Amino acid sequence: MFRPNKMAHIDKPTLVWLRDDLRLADNPALSAGAKAGAPLVVVYILDAMSEGIRPLGGAARWWLNGSLDALARNLAARGQKLVLRHGPAVDVLLDLATEIEVGRVFWNRRYGGGARAVDAAIKTALKDRDVAVESFQANLLCEPWTVRTQAGDPFRVYTPFWKACRQHFPPRPPLPVPASMPPSVDGLRSDALADWRLLPEKPDWAGGLRASWTPGEAGAAARLRTFLTERLPDYAAHRDEPAADVSSRLSPHLRFGEISPFQLWHGVSPEALGETAKIGQANIDKFLSEIGWREFSWHLLFHQPDLATRNFQPRFDAFPWPAVNQPALVAWQQGRTGIPIVDAGMRELWQTGFMHNRVRMIVASFLVKNLLVDWRIGEAWFWDTLVDADAANNPASWQWVAGSGADAAPYFRVFNPVLQGEKFDADGAYVRTHVPELAGLLAKQWIHAPWKSGGVAGYPDPIVDLGATRERALRAFAQMREDGADFSSGFSED
User: What pLDDT, on the 0 to 100 scale, is given for residue 271?
Assistant: First the structure.
C-alpha cells in the first residue's frame, strides 16, 4: 500500500507513468493513482533515445499506435486524459513532474537492463525533490529476484525454474478497473498521436495487420474469450499444428500489457472455467507452461541484459559464422527459399505480423543451421516484423534454436523442414494457405517437397541442399569444439 512520505502533500497531483501496461484492469499503478484522490495525470512517453532502450520495430510501432488510441478512448470515457510525450524518459518525466508540482509518482516495474537503469535514475531524482515514488508488480507472475536455485544462482533451465515459480502460487487475483478516477490536471500539453508517425505510409504495408488484429484492451479480452471457448479444449493435442488454429494469439496483447499474466492465470482457473473436466487439465497445464516460458525469458533477460546481442553461452563466441549470403538471406526474408513450410511461415509473418510458434522454430533453424546466418540477424528481422516481439522472448527464443542460449536445443539439433512439415502440417493446409503457388499441388507427398514432383511453375527450387547444408553446419560446430568449446557429443536430426 502507498504511504506518502512527510514531504508529499495529499493535495499535490499524482502522476501514473504507463509503459508496457496499456490497460485499465489489473493495473496496480493506475489503481493506486485512482485511490490517491489527488488530481491525476496519466502519461505515456515514447522513448527511443535513452541508453539501453531498444527502439520498436515497424510492426510493434503499428501495434503501439492502435493500443494507445484504444487506451486514450477508454480513459476519456472515464473523464481522464492520456498525456503523450516523447524523448528521453528521465528528462521528459522530470520536466512533467516539475510542471505539475507532482506529489507522488506510480509505475509498474520493468525488467530489462536499460529500462531498470532509467527507472532507477528517475526514482533517485524524484526522491531528491521530495516526491514519493512507488512501483508495483504487474507484468510478471514471478519477479526475477524472487526465484533462485538452492545455491542462490539464477536458473538456467526452464523446468526447475517453473517448478520454483509455482511454489509462490496462486498468484494474486487481478484488480478491477478503478470504479472512479480523480479529475485530470487541466491544460497539460500532449503530443498528437499522429505526429509520432508510428503507422507505415509509403508504402502502407499494414493491411494484413489491420485485417488480423484489434490492438487494445477490448481486443485482448475478446481474444481471451475466443481462446477459452473455442481453442483451449484442443490446445495440448494440436498446438504444434499451424493449420489447426488453436493457439491463443494473446502474445501481442501481453507484450503491450493490454492483458496481464494474472488475468490469464485466473482466466483458466476452475472458478472462471466452471467444470474444468470439460476443458481438460492437460490443456490448462500446457497453456500455463507457455506463460511460464515467457516468465523464464524475462528471468534470463534480467540477469543478462544484452541477451539480444551476446551469446548466453560464451563458448559460442567462437562459432565460425561465414560472411552472410545476402541473396539467400533476402530469399528467407521474402519467403522465396523453395522450402514450402519455411516460405509459408515467412509470408505469414510479413502479411500478419505473426507466425505460429512451431513454424518460428523451423524458420529459425533453417536460417541459422542451413544458411549458416548468425542468429542475431534473424532476431533483428523478427524484432522488426513481429507484432509480439519483446525484449525477452525474441532473443531468448532465437538463442534456444541456435543452441547458444539457456536450456537450449543443442546446436547439432537441426530441424529438417520437410520432415517437420510432414509431421505438423500433414495435409499441407498451412502451406497451401500462405504459398498459393502450391495450392494446386494435389499429391500429399509432394506439398512439402515440390521439387520431387518436377517443380511447380512460379515457385522457386530450393536455394540450398538440406542435407549438404546440415553437414556444413555440423562441421562448423565441430570446428568450434576443436577450438576448445566444451560440448557433449552426439548429433540428431528432427
Answer: 81
Q: Does residue 190 fall inside a structural domain?
A: no
Residues 6+ apart with CB under 8 A from 204: none
| Residue 308 placed within a domain | no
pLDDT in tens, 27-60: 999 999 999 999 999 999 999 999 999 999 999 9
pTM for the predicted model, two decimal places:
0.94
End position of a domain, from candidates 138, 157, 187? 138
Count of domains for the chain: 3
- Would you report the helix, strand and coil content of the chain in percent, each value rounded to 5? 50, 5, 45
d(C-alpha 418, C-alpha 309), whole Å: 30
Share of the chain above pLDDT 90, in %: 88
Grid cell listed for 331: 530469399
Q: What is the mean pLDDT of the chain?
A: 93
- pLDDT at residue 326 tops 60: yes
- 298 falls within a domain: yes
Write out the residue range of the structural domain in which residue 106 sits: 14-138
Residue 20 domain flag:
yes
Q: What DSSP line would sit under 118-182, residue for residue?
A: HHHHHHHHHHHTT-EEEEE--S-SS-GGG---TTSPPP-SHHHHHHHHHTTPSPPPPPPPPS--P
Residues tagged active-site:
290, 293, 321, 357, 375, 398
> pLDDT tens digits for 8-26?
456 899 999 999 999 999 9
Q: Which H or E run includes 58?
A: helix 58-76
Cis peptide before 340 (omega within 30 of 0): no
Domain match, 162 and 150 both: yes
